[in-house]
Design brief:
Order of helices and strands: HHHEHEEEH
Number of strands: 4
Strand order of the largest sheet: 2-1-3-4
Structural class: alpha+beta
Oligomer: single chain
Shape: elongated
Helix content: 55-70%
Distance between the termini: 96 Å
Strand content: 5-15%
Largest sheet: 4 strands, mixed
Number of domains: 2
Radius of gyration: 26 Å
Number of helices: 5
């Protein structure tokens, strides 16, 4: 009989090991799927914003060529004012899209992903990870991902969303806020669109 019990015991162990292996495999696949969807959502938002900026850039340039050919020097000031208005509208729309994304169900996962990446740059120390007031409800959730000595705080200068890490010990700052990304795009757009008034 001991031989039979031993066989049953080994059989149960084999089934248990197989079940655990399958569970781990399913968990890995689920996490990979979640990360893939999050990455895809992030890429879609950025692609959509980029396309909008590109379309408006083409429209602005085409409008500019037509306007400059018909107007004299005095009228150029009006054209430049209109271009600035269009540029402001474009970035207002882009900001609105980012605000919509920051209110979406995918956004908390995006913040977690950003924080996990930032933690790699600041593995220990008194790093402060700042989020917007709109993200205050996520502070506890995000705080659990901070390394020892780090903390998540609300900052009133982050209006749209994202995370900014500041390490007072070494003076490092990593700004991964949606606000800074939009500002960066605005600066790039201003320089590359040829809308600078000299």
């Amino acid at each position: 009989m001991p031989n039979s019990e031993e066989k049953v015991s080994k059989f149960v162990q084999a089934i248990t090991a197989y079940a655990e292996e399958q569970r781990d495999k399913i968990l890995r696949e689920a996490e990979a799927f979640k990360m893939e969807r999050l990455q895809k959502a992030e890429e879609e938002v950025l692609t959509e914003s980029y396309k909008l900026i590109q379309q408006e850039t083409v429209q602005i340039r085409n409008e500019g060529v037509r306007e400059m050919s018909r107007r004299d020097l005095a009228a150029r000031k009006d054209v430049l004012a209109r271009r600035r208005q269009i540029m402001d509208e474009v970035f207002s729309k882009a900001e609105q899209k980012l605000l919509e994304y920051a209110s979406s169900p995918d956004y908390p996962d995006y913040l977690e992903k950003q924080l996990k990446q930032m933690v790699q740059f600041f593995p220990v120390g008194e790093t402060v990870y700042a989020v917007s007031l709109r993200d205050a409800v996520l502070v506890n959730r995000l705080s659990s991902l901070c390394p020892l000595g780090g903390r998540v705080e609300v900052s009133d200068d982050i209006k749209i969303g994202g995370i900014r890490a500041t390490n007072p010990i070494n003076g490092q700052i990593v700004d991964n806020t949606l606000d800074s990304k939009l500002r960066s795009q605005h600066e790039w757009f201003t320089i590359s669109s040829g809308l600078i008034v000299g």
